[in-house]
Specification:
The chain is of the alpha/beta class and about 425 residues long. Strands 4-12-11-10-7-5-6 form a seven-stranded mixed β-sheet, with helices on both faces. The protein has a four-stranded mixed β-sheet with strand order 1-2-3-15. It has a three-stranded antiparallel β-sheet with strand order 13-14-16, covered by helices on one side. A hairpin with a 5-residue loop joins strand 8 and strand 9. The longest helix is centred in the C-terminal third of the chain and has 21 residues.
Protein backbone atom coordinates (compact mmCIF):
# COMPACT_ATOMS: atom_id res chain seq x y z
CA UNK A 1 0.00 0.00 0.00
CA UNK A 2 1.34 3.45 -0.95
CA UNK A 3 2.14 6.20 1.54
CA UNK A 4 -0.74 8.18 0.07
CA UNK A 5 -3.24 5.42 0.91
CA UNK A 6 -1.77 4.75 4.36
CA UNK A 7 -1.79 8.48 5.09
CA UNK A 8 -5.54 8.76 4.50
CA UNK A 9 -6.34 6.33 7.32
CA UNK A 10 -5.21 8.50 10.23
CA UNK A 11 -3.66 11.84 9.24
CA UNK A 12 -5.38 15.25 9.26
CA UNK A 13 -3.35 17.65 7.11
CA UNK A 14 -3.20 21.44 7.54
CA UNK A 15 -4.74 23.91 5.06
CA UNK A 16 -6.66 21.13 3.35
CA UNK A 17 -10.30 20.24 2.75
CA UNK A 18 -10.09 16.45 2.91
CA UNK A 19 -13.56 15.98 1.43
CA UNK A 20 -12.45 17.39 -1.93
CA UNK A 21 -8.67 16.82 -1.70
CA UNK A 22 -8.13 13.46 0.05
CA UNK A 23 -4.68 12.63 -1.38
CA UNK A 24 -1.24 13.73 -0.20
CA UNK A 25 1.87 12.87 -2.18
CA UNK A 26 4.44 10.75 -0.35
CA UNK A 27 7.91 12.35 -0.32
CA UNK A 28 10.65 9.95 0.76
CA UNK A 29 13.85 11.92 0.15
CA UNK A 30 15.13 15.46 -0.22
CA UNK A 31 18.59 16.73 -1.04
CA UNK A 32 19.67 20.17 -2.13
CA UNK A 33 16.77 21.55 -4.18
CA UNK A 34 15.30 18.18 -5.16
CA UNK A 35 12.33 16.37 -3.60
CA UNK A 36 11.84 12.69 -4.47
CA UNK A 37 8.47 10.98 -4.14
CA UNK A 38 7.73 7.35 -3.33
CA UNK A 39 7.53 6.52 -7.04
CA UNK A 40 10.98 7.94 -7.79
CA UNK A 41 9.77 11.16 -9.41
CA UNK A 42 11.84 14.28 -8.71
CA UNK A 43 10.68 17.87 -8.18
CA UNK A 44 12.60 21.12 -7.79
CA UNK A 45 11.55 22.70 -4.49
CA UNK A 46 11.01 26.21 -5.84
CA UNK A 47 9.61 27.58 -2.54
CA UNK A 48 12.14 26.02 -0.14
CA UNK A 49 9.38 24.06 1.60
CA UNK A 50 7.55 27.11 2.93
CA UNK A 51 10.69 29.26 3.04
CA UNK A 52 12.54 27.03 5.53
CA UNK A 53 15.21 25.04 3.67
CA UNK A 54 17.02 28.08 2.29
CA UNK A 55 20.40 26.31 2.37
CA UNK A 56 19.04 23.23 0.63
CA UNK A 57 17.51 20.09 2.03
CA UNK A 58 19.71 17.88 4.21
CA UNK A 59 22.56 20.37 4.05
CA UNK A 60 25.75 18.52 5.04
CA UNK A 61 27.13 21.38 7.13
CA UNK A 62 23.93 21.65 9.19
CA UNK A 63 23.66 17.87 9.50
CA UNK A 64 27.20 17.59 10.84
CA UNK A 65 26.65 20.35 13.41
CA UNK A 66 23.40 18.74 14.55
CA UNK A 67 24.96 15.28 14.69
CA UNK A 68 27.76 16.53 16.93
CA UNK A 69 25.25 18.26 19.23
CA UNK A 70 23.07 15.13 19.46
CA UNK A 71 26.01 13.24 20.93
CA UNK A 72 26.69 15.91 23.53
CA UNK A 73 23.35 17.27 24.79
CA UNK A 74 19.88 16.53 23.40
CA UNK A 75 17.42 18.43 25.59
CA UNK A 76 17.48 20.39 28.84
CA UNK A 77 14.78 22.47 30.49
CA UNK A 78 15.61 26.09 29.89
CA UNK A 79 13.93 27.67 32.90
CA UNK A 80 16.73 26.59 35.24
CA UNK A 81 19.67 25.86 32.95
CA UNK A 82 21.55 27.22 29.98
CA UNK A 83 23.91 25.47 27.56
CA UNK A 84 26.72 26.30 25.12
CA UNK A 85 24.62 26.13 21.93
CA UNK A 86 22.02 28.57 23.26
CA UNK A 87 24.66 31.04 24.37
CA UNK A 88 26.57 30.81 21.09
CA UNK A 89 23.37 31.21 19.08
CA UNK A 90 22.35 34.29 21.06
CA UNK A 91 25.74 35.86 20.38
CA UNK A 92 25.61 35.08 16.65
CA UNK A 93 22.06 36.40 16.32
CA UNK A 94 22.78 39.66 18.11
CA UNK A 95 25.74 40.18 15.77
CA UNK A 96 23.54 40.09 12.67
CA UNK A 97 20.24 41.51 13.98
CA UNK A 98 19.55 45.26 13.85
CA UNK A 99 21.75 47.10 16.35
CA UNK A 100 18.96 47.92 18.78
CA UNK A 101 18.19 44.27 19.55
CA UNK A 102 19.57 43.07 22.88
CA UNK A 103 17.73 40.02 24.25
CA UNK A 104 16.75 36.64 22.78
CA UNK A 105 13.65 34.67 23.84
CA UNK A 106 13.19 31.13 22.51
CA UNK A 107 9.94 29.72 21.06
CA UNK A 108 8.84 26.77 18.92
CA UNK A 109 7.55 28.18 15.62
CA UNK A 110 6.54 31.34 13.80
CA UNK A 111 3.09 31.61 15.35
CA UNK A 112 4.44 31.26 18.88
CA UNK A 113 7.19 33.78 18.16
CA UNK A 114 4.49 36.33 17.30
CA UNK A 115 2.30 35.19 20.18
CA UNK A 116 5.19 35.79 22.55
CA UNK A 117 5.81 39.24 21.06
CA UNK A 118 2.15 40.19 21.55
CA UNK A 119 2.24 39.02 25.17
CA UNK A 120 5.48 40.94 25.74
CA UNK A 121 3.85 44.12 24.47
CA UNK A 122 0.74 43.68 26.60
CA UNK A 123 2.69 42.90 29.75
CA UNK A 124 5.19 45.69 29.08
CA UNK A 125 2.40 48.20 29.62
CA UNK A 126 0.72 46.15 32.35
CA UNK A 127 3.95 46.22 34.33
CA UNK A 128 4.02 50.00 33.91
CA UNK A 129 0.39 50.23 35.06
CA UNK A 130 -0.54 51.62 31.68
CA UNK A 131 -3.41 49.51 30.38
CA UNK A 132 -3.09 49.14 26.62
CA UNK A 133 -4.98 46.34 24.92
CA UNK A 134 -5.36 47.39 21.28
CA UNK A 135 -3.13 46.63 18.32
CA UNK A 136 -2.52 47.99 14.83
CA UNK A 137 -1.74 45.73 11.89
CA UNK A 138 -1.72 45.83 8.10
CA UNK A 139 -4.69 44.72 6.04
CA UNK A 140 -4.25 41.21 4.60
CA UNK A 141 -1.30 40.43 6.85
CA UNK A 142 -0.60 36.96 8.17
CA UNK A 143 1.18 36.29 11.45
CA UNK A 144 0.22 32.76 12.47
CA UNK A 145 -2.53 30.50 13.74
CA UNK A 146 -2.40 30.89 17.53
CA UNK A 147 -5.02 33.31 18.88
CA UNK A 148 -2.91 36.42 19.36
CA UNK A 149 -1.08 35.94 16.07
CA UNK A 150 -4.36 35.14 14.34
CA UNK A 151 -5.92 38.31 15.77
CA UNK A 152 -3.32 40.47 14.08
CA UNK A 153 -3.72 38.58 10.80
CA UNK A 154 -6.14 39.93 8.25
CA UNK A 155 -6.90 36.96 5.99
CA UNK A 156 -10.45 35.82 6.77
CA UNK A 157 -9.96 32.44 5.10
CA UNK A 158 -7.92 31.51 8.17
CA UNK A 159 -9.76 33.49 10.85
CA UNK A 160 -13.46 33.18 9.97
CA UNK A 161 -14.78 30.81 12.68
CA UNK A 162 -12.74 32.47 15.43
CA UNK A 163 -13.27 36.20 14.91
CA UNK A 164 -15.55 36.56 17.95
CA UNK A 165 -12.69 35.47 20.19
CA UNK A 166 -9.85 37.66 18.88
CA UNK A 167 -8.17 40.69 20.42
CA UNK A 168 -9.04 44.15 19.10
CA UNK A 169 -6.93 45.11 16.08
CA UNK A 170 -7.16 48.29 13.99
CA UNK A 171 -6.13 47.68 10.37
CA UNK A 172 -4.32 50.07 8.07
CA UNK A 173 -3.37 49.69 4.39
CA UNK A 174 0.18 48.92 3.39
CA UNK A 175 2.08 52.02 2.27
CA UNK A 176 2.69 52.86 -1.37
CA UNK A 177 4.08 55.99 -2.99
CA UNK A 178 0.76 57.84 -2.83
CA UNK A 179 -0.96 57.06 0.50
CA UNK A 180 1.58 58.04 3.20
CA UNK A 181 -0.36 61.06 4.42
CA UNK A 182 -3.64 59.15 4.42
CA UNK A 183 -2.18 56.39 6.56
CA UNK A 184 -0.67 58.85 9.03
CA UNK A 185 -4.04 60.58 9.39
CA UNK A 186 -5.66 57.20 9.99
CA UNK A 187 -3.06 56.37 12.63
CA UNK A 188 -3.67 59.69 14.35
CA UNK A 189 -7.39 58.95 14.44
CA UNK A 190 -6.78 55.49 15.88
CA UNK A 191 -4.55 56.67 18.73
CA UNK A 192 -7.06 59.42 19.58
CA UNK A 193 -9.64 56.80 20.56
CA UNK A 194 -7.68 53.63 21.34
CA UNK A 195 -4.96 52.74 23.85
CA UNK A 196 -2.64 51.06 21.37
CA UNK A 197 -0.01 48.69 22.71
CA UNK A 198 1.78 47.68 19.51
CA UNK A 199 1.95 47.71 15.75
CA UNK A 200 2.54 44.23 14.26
CA UNK A 201 3.78 44.10 10.67
CA UNK A 202 5.54 42.09 8.00
CA UNK A 203 8.36 44.39 6.88
CA UNK A 204 8.30 45.17 3.14
CA UNK A 205 6.84 41.84 2.05
CA UNK A 206 3.50 40.24 2.95
CA UNK A 207 3.96 36.54 2.32
CA UNK A 208 0.59 34.80 2.64
CA UNK A 209 -1.13 37.83 1.09
CA UNK A 210 0.57 36.89 -2.18
CA UNK A 211 4.13 38.17 -1.79
CA UNK A 212 2.87 41.77 -1.85
CA UNK A 213 5.69 44.33 -1.60
CA UNK A 214 5.12 47.68 0.07
CA UNK A 215 7.03 50.94 0.27
CA UNK A 216 10.02 51.25 2.64
CA UNK A 217 9.71 55.04 2.95
CA UNK A 218 6.06 54.77 3.93
CA UNK A 219 6.78 51.98 6.40
CA UNK A 220 9.52 54.07 7.96
CA UNK A 221 7.04 56.92 8.49
CA UNK A 222 4.62 54.52 10.19
CA UNK A 223 7.37 53.24 12.48
CA UNK A 224 8.42 56.79 13.33
CA UNK A 225 4.81 57.63 14.21
CA UNK A 226 4.70 54.60 16.51
CA UNK A 227 7.92 55.64 18.23
CA UNK A 228 6.59 59.16 18.77
CA UNK A 229 3.38 57.77 20.29
CA UNK A 230 5.09 55.17 22.49
CA UNK A 231 3.65 52.27 20.49
CA UNK A 232 5.78 49.12 20.49
CA UNK A 233 6.75 47.97 16.98
CA UNK A 234 6.82 44.22 16.28
CA UNK A 235 8.44 43.07 13.04
CA UNK A 236 7.30 39.63 11.93
CA UNK A 237 10.39 38.43 10.05
CA UNK A 238 9.40 34.77 10.18
CA UNK A 239 9.20 34.68 6.38
CA UNK A 240 11.43 37.62 5.42
CA UNK A 241 14.39 36.91 7.71
CA UNK A 242 17.77 35.36 6.92
CA UNK A 243 18.62 36.84 3.55
CA UNK A 244 15.46 36.44 1.51
CA UNK A 245 15.04 40.17 0.77
CA UNK A 246 18.70 40.60 -0.20
CA UNK A 247 19.74 41.67 3.30
CA UNK A 248 19.94 39.58 6.46
CA UNK A 249 16.57 40.95 7.58
CA UNK A 250 13.92 43.03 5.86
CA UNK A 251 14.26 45.52 8.72
CA UNK A 252 17.77 46.25 7.44
CA UNK A 253 16.15 48.06 4.50
CA UNK A 254 14.38 50.48 6.84
CA UNK A 255 15.93 53.29 8.92
CA UNK A 256 13.63 52.96 11.94
CA UNK A 257 14.19 49.62 13.66
CA UNK A 258 11.55 47.54 15.45
CA UNK A 259 11.38 47.06 19.21
CA UNK A 260 10.67 43.34 18.83
CA UNK A 261 11.53 40.92 16.02
CA UNK A 262 9.99 37.48 15.38
CA UNK A 263 12.07 34.80 13.66
CA UNK A 264 11.57 31.19 12.59
CA UNK A 265 11.44 29.14 9.34
CA UNK A 266 14.97 29.57 7.87
CA UNK A 267 16.38 30.03 11.39
CA UNK A 268 17.28 26.33 11.52
CA UNK A 269 17.57 25.84 7.76
CA UNK A 270 14.45 23.67 7.90
CA UNK A 271 16.19 21.01 10.01
CA UNK A 272 14.00 21.23 13.14
CA UNK A 273 11.32 23.58 14.54
CA UNK A 274 12.57 26.60 16.46
CA UNK A 275 11.71 30.28 16.78
CA UNK A 276 13.08 33.45 18.35
CA UNK A 277 11.48 36.60 19.71
CA UNK A 278 14.20 39.23 20.13
CA UNK A 279 13.73 42.60 21.80
CA UNK A 280 15.45 45.78 22.91
CA UNK A 281 16.94 46.30 26.35
CA UNK A 282 14.11 48.73 27.09
CA UNK A 283 11.47 46.04 26.61
CA UNK A 284 13.41 43.55 28.71
CA UNK A 285 14.00 46.02 31.55
CA UNK A 286 10.25 46.50 32.04
CA UNK A 287 10.06 42.91 33.33
CA UNK A 288 12.79 43.35 35.96
CA UNK A 289 11.32 43.68 39.46
CA UNK A 290 11.38 42.31 42.97
CA UNK A 291 7.77 41.37 42.25
CA UNK A 292 7.86 37.90 40.70
CA UNK A 293 4.53 38.51 38.97
CA UNK A 294 6.21 41.11 36.74
CA UNK A 295 8.47 38.44 35.28
CA UNK A 296 7.63 36.98 31.88
CA UNK A 297 5.85 33.71 32.68
CA UNK A 298 5.72 32.27 29.18
CA UNK A 299 7.49 29.01 28.42
CA UNK A 300 7.77 26.21 25.89
CA UNK A 301 8.97 22.75 26.90
CA UNK A 302 11.48 22.69 24.06
CA UNK A 303 12.66 26.29 24.49
CA UNK A 304 16.27 26.61 23.29
CA UNK A 305 16.46 22.93 22.44
CA UNK A 306 20.21 22.27 21.95
CA UNK A 307 19.70 20.46 18.66
CA UNK A 308 17.66 23.33 17.27
CA UNK A 309 20.28 25.79 18.49
CA UNK A 310 23.03 23.82 16.75
CA UNK A 311 21.08 23.85 13.49
CA UNK A 312 20.54 27.61 13.84
CA UNK A 313 24.21 28.28 14.50
CA UNK A 314 25.06 26.35 11.33
CA UNK A 315 22.42 28.30 9.37
CA UNK A 316 23.91 31.62 10.44
CA UNK A 317 27.38 30.39 9.50
CA UNK A 318 26.08 29.58 6.03
CA UNK A 319 24.08 32.79 5.68
CA UNK A 320 27.09 34.97 6.43
CA UNK A 321 29.43 33.00 4.16
CA UNK A 322 30.72 34.59 0.95
CA UNK A 323 29.29 31.72 -1.09
CA UNK A 324 25.70 32.15 0.09
CA UNK A 325 25.85 35.95 -0.12
CA UNK A 326 27.08 35.65 -3.70
CA UNK A 327 24.31 33.16 -4.50
CA UNK A 328 21.65 35.50 -3.09
CA UNK A 329 22.81 38.26 -5.42
CA UNK A 330 22.95 35.85 -8.37
CA UNK A 331 19.39 34.61 -7.81
CA UNK A 332 18.16 38.18 -7.42
CA UNK A 333 19.68 39.18 -10.77
CA UNK A 334 18.24 36.11 -12.51
CA UNK A 335 14.80 36.92 -11.09
CA UNK A 336 15.09 40.44 -12.48
CA UNK A 337 15.87 39.08 -15.94
CA UNK A 338 12.94 36.66 -15.79
CA UNK A 339 10.65 39.44 -14.61
CA UNK A 340 11.57 41.57 -17.64
CA UNK A 341 10.88 38.59 -19.87
CA UNK A 342 7.62 37.26 -18.42
CA UNK A 343 5.89 40.56 -17.59
CA UNK A 344 4.75 40.93 -21.21
CA UNK A 345 3.10 37.50 -21.28
CA UNK A 346 -0.62 37.91 -22.12
CA UNK A 347 -1.63 35.91 -19.02
CA UNK A 348 0.48 38.07 -16.66
CA UNK A 349 -1.00 41.13 -14.97
CA UNK A 350 2.09 42.26 -13.03
CA UNK A 351 5.42 41.07 -11.64
CA UNK A 352 7.53 42.02 -8.62
CA UNK A 353 10.81 40.97 -7.08
CA UNK A 354 12.70 41.51 -3.83
CA UNK A 355 15.90 39.59 -3.14
CA UNK A 356 15.33 35.91 -3.91
CA UNK A 357 11.55 36.36 -3.93
CA UNK A 358 9.83 36.69 -7.30
CA UNK A 359 6.08 36.86 -7.85
CA UNK A 360 3.69 37.37 -10.72
CA UNK A 361 -0.05 37.93 -10.68
CA UNK A 362 -2.17 36.25 -13.30
CA UNK A 363 -4.55 38.47 -15.21
CA UNK A 364 -7.59 36.67 -13.83
CA UNK A 365 -9.62 36.46 -10.65
CA UNK A 366 -9.39 33.12 -8.87
CA UNK A 367 -10.10 31.65 -5.47
CA UNK A 368 -7.23 31.12 -3.07
CA UNK A 369 -7.90 27.37 -3.02
CA UNK A 370 -10.00 27.09 -6.17
CA UNK A 371 -9.99 24.89 -9.27
CA UNK A 372 -7.58 27.00 -11.34
CA UNK A 373 -5.10 27.12 -8.47
CA UNK A 374 -5.27 23.30 -8.20
CA UNK A 375 -4.74 23.01 -11.96
CA UNK A 376 -1.65 25.21 -11.79
CA UNK A 377 -0.18 23.23 -8.89
CA UNK A 378 -0.76 19.92 -10.70
CA UNK A 379 0.69 21.29 -13.94
CA UNK A 380 3.86 22.48 -12.24
CA UNK A 381 4.30 19.14 -10.45
CA UNK A 382 3.83 17.28 -13.75
CA UNK A 383 6.79 19.27 -15.10
CA UNK A 384 8.90 18.39 -12.05
CA UNK A 385 8.66 21.72 -10.22
CA UNK A 386 6.99 22.33 -6.84
CA UNK A 387 5.34 25.75 -6.93
CA UNK A 388 2.38 26.53 -4.67
CA UNK A 389 0.28 29.44 -5.98
CA UNK A 390 -1.28 31.89 -3.53
CA UNK A 391 -4.58 32.63 -5.25
CA UNK A 392 -3.71 34.21 -8.59
CA UNK A 393 -0.10 34.78 -7.47
CA UNK A 394 2.68 32.46 -8.63
CA UNK A 395 5.85 33.00 -6.65
CA UNK A 396 9.38 31.63 -6.43
CA UNK A 397 11.51 31.54 -3.30
CA UNK A 398 14.24 28.99 -4.06
CA UNK A 399 17.02 27.66 -1.83
CA UNK A 400 20.20 29.72 -1.99
CA UNK A 401 22.09 26.67 -3.29
CA UNK A 402 19.97 26.30 -6.42
CA UNK A 403 21.91 25.80 -9.66
CA UNK A 404 21.45 27.96 -12.73
CA UNK A 405 20.00 24.96 -14.56
CA UNK A 406 17.44 24.31 -11.83
CA UNK A 407 16.48 27.97 -11.67
CA UNK A 408 16.07 28.12 -15.44
CA UNK A 409 13.81 25.06 -15.34
CA UNK A 410 11.55 26.85 -12.86
CA UNK A 411 11.31 29.83 -15.20
CA UNK A 412 10.65 27.77 -18.32
CA UNK A 413 8.09 25.64 -16.48
CA UNK A 414 6.12 28.70 -15.41
CA UNK A 415 6.10 30.04 -18.96
CA UNK A 416 5.14 26.67 -20.39
CA UNK A 417 2.22 26.27 -18.02
CA UNK A 418 1.02 29.84 -18.65
CA UNK A 419 1.06 29.14 -22.39
CA UNK A 420 -1.41 26.27 -21.84
CA UNK A 421 -3.96 28.26 -19.81
Amino acid sequence: MSLTERDKKHIWHPLKQHQTHPNSLGIVKAKGCILTDEHGNEYIDAISSWYTCMFGHCNDYIINKVHAQMQQLDQIMFSDFTHPAAVELSEKLINILPDNQSKIFFNDNGSTAVESAIKMALQYYFNKEDKRIDFIAFENGFHGDTFGAMSTSGLSVYNGPFEDFLIDVQRIPTPNKTNHDTILKQLQEIVSRKNVAAFVYEPLLQGAAGMKIHDSEGLNKILQFCKENNIITIADEVMTGFGKTGKNFASDHIDTKPDIICLSKALTGGMVPMAITSCTQKIYDAFLSNDIAKGYFHCHTYSANPIGCAASIASIDLLTSDEIQTNIQKISKEHQKFSEHIKNHPKVKSTRQLGVVFALDLDTNMERYGTLRDLLLASFMKEGVFLRPLGNTIYIQPPYVISSEELNKIYTTIEKVLDTL
